[in-house]
DNA-binding response regulator
Amino acid sequence: MVTPLLKVVLTEDDGPVRERLARIVHEWPEAELCAACATLEETQAAIEADDIDLLITDLKLPDGSGIEAIRFLARRRSEAEAIVISVLADERSVLAAIEAGASGYLLKDADSIDLIEAIRDVMAGRSPISSRIARVLVRRLSENGNTAAENEGARPALTEREMDILWGIAKGFTYGELADSLAISRQTVPVHIRNIYRKLQASNRSEAVFEAARLGLIRL
């Protein structure tokens, strides 16, 4: 049985950047680039035109925001995923994108390997985020006043290895980087991550980082 290609819409108003990202997606044999858009209007039309699986979008567009595109995607294609690729790393932009429904948030210094791995992570139910973005999320939670003492009784029991991997998740490490830094096999990392998600009652990386910081398990 042939696996259907992943249908992708890309939105980026900068021509050279759009061409580079489009080439990465186009050359990946597991995906079909349905449209490479420069505006919010073009993106909405592309979402309407095809039953897409993934939107990759910048936030600053000439006629609106990528956040509007993510919200539009959620209304029209509720099963589709969204990844933000942006130069913006401020708290307001990050939180607004995640609240709108973005499952991943990468900064524009991501190379081709990072982008494809991020797409695979998102489609597998995980949330790829750059390390700077993880710090923004954790800092926001820390500022909400959820101290470790207040949450001592609610903390799940994570093993020492799970805590090591949790720190790696918060810093945005890939599976390969986690395996190398901890001297364990790459196949072992997803097993630990699934246990972490179960114990934190999280379904993806962003939720795990949020919950761990809320409970005082990690501080960046």
In short: The chain has ten helices and seven strands. The chain has a mean pLDDT of 85.
